[in-house]
Amino acid sequence: MAGLIVQKYGGTSVAQPERICSVADRIAARYHAGHRLAVVVSAMGHTTDELIELAQKVSKEPPRREMDMLLTAGERISMALLSMALSDRGVPARSFTGSQSGIITDGAHRRARIRRILGDRVREALGRNQVAIVAGFQGVSEDKEITTLGRGGSDTTAVALAAALQADACEIYTDVNGVFSADPRFVAAARQWRTLPHDLMVELATRGAGVLHPRSVELARQYRVPLWVINSLRQAEGTEIVVRGMEEYGVVGVTSDSAKAWLEVKLSRPTALSALWDAAAKGQLAVVSPQFLDGRVSFFVEQDCAGEWKSQLQKLASDGFISSFELRTDWVPVSVVGDRFSQDGAALQAVLEALMSAGVEATAGNASSLAITIAVPAAKASDAVKHLHHVFLEGN
Ligand code: ADP
Ligand code: ASP
Ligand code: MG
Known about the structure:
alpha/beta, Carbamate kinase, VC0802-like, 2 domains, 4-stranded mixed sheet, 20 strands, 36% helix, globular, binds adenosine-5'-diphosphate, binds aspartic acid, binds magnesium ion
């Protein structure tokens, strides 16, 4: 059945001109089969990383606003090239920046959240039977400032656009067949899920499974967007993110997140915790897996935000809310995600035993109903993931 499809192609899928041409072939085939298509693209290959390195060569602390101006250039290149490749194939296409597409975000540079999508020009293009190509990862604030959505944010552009257009499906094309029980690049025994419910996918994504941007899964759940992860490089069955039914999934995956660091804060008065959360909320600083014990609170933060955390914490210390803090970038989170933990008191024990037998020091840990997260030395994270995967997912 012909319908309106939003597709998203990630960096590897458009890394070279030849790959852009094969993406164009794929789109042309769907277009000629009668589908209407809005296509979200990421920057080519490692472009975003290269732009970040470039900025670091000219500035010790590049202003966040200017970083967004710079980084959005990456997606502008790929959207224009894809549009050209389509026109060569006789497919009418128009490319649009985030701002032209009316992707309105808040003003938080480098980690903005989409507030709404106007989408007039995208709808207009679709109405003229053109393929609309939209730059991923970017938007514009109410103050007309250009923003980006955080690393990996093109997935969120695609799902938000699919919700706004009430698309029949959102297909995320990437360089693996779908969602696996661990990063298949590092765990050879990782197995692919054909379907996975939103709640478990959100947990996997927030705890480091880079295959989908966490916010994209939250939006898919909220707006009931049919969401798929599919390989763009070869023909294979993908993974469908589904509404949770009655079935239980057990343990679905093991993740680690080298972009995070561990932060421990000593509080000096009872109101300190709310002052700390207020500071985090104001600065839009993510707090992952917090735990409170004995006047101390610890949680994971984005390493990218270390500088901002330090200045917030120094202010809280001078205001007398906290007495000290320690930021450990050499400790990262490793998580086991699944839907049985609330009934299974032994799960945390099993995780700790598995880590001990792999010779991995478990510094601190936290269990919720859908995940167990442990701080481990960064150098041991990949051993920890392999071993936990072996214990929980390889049938022993
Ligand atoms: P894209 O550029 O297409 O957005 P990403 O690099 O952001 O691609 O995401 C795809 C990568 O996510 C894969 O190459 C894989 O190494 C990694 N990954 C991490 N965890 C998982 C997982 N649980 N399942 C599948 N892929 C994963
Ligand atoms: N190009 C951006 C990044 O590398 C966005 C994305 O790929 O989703 O993070
Ligand atoms: Mg990605």
